[in-house]
Amino acid sequence: MENRWSDRRDLCLGVDIIQQGKKLATCTSRDVGLGGTYIDIDNETKQRLHLDSDVELIFHLLDGQQETKHTLYARIVRVDTSGVGLKFHEFDTGVFRSLQEIMGYHGVERVH
Q1: CA distances (Å), 29 to each of 14, 15, 48, 84, 92, in order?
Q2: 38/28 Cα distance (integer angstroms)
Q3: Which of 14, 29, 75, 100 has the fewest CB atoms within 10 Å, i.e. is most exposed?
């Protein structure tokens, strides 16, 4: 059963995972939506992440030689064999604008 409250877009972006001010890893998003994201991570990083813990995510958008970074706060809501599902929180207009830019990004989309 789907628990998502917003549509998601298959989008492959570089994402830094920060927990308690420390960068744990740079991973790749699998999909991104207004409510959250799913990130593919390696087993070593996965062992350091726990359900219901809060993290900071830094999304990297590349446009030619220019990189734009968007920082969003999220809670881990699912951990499985491939990665983690995260739900965004601490919404304000800046966060909403960042999500709109991420969702509108024309970078690399996943091919099924």
Answers
A1: 7, 7, 18, 10, 22
A2: 9
A3: 100
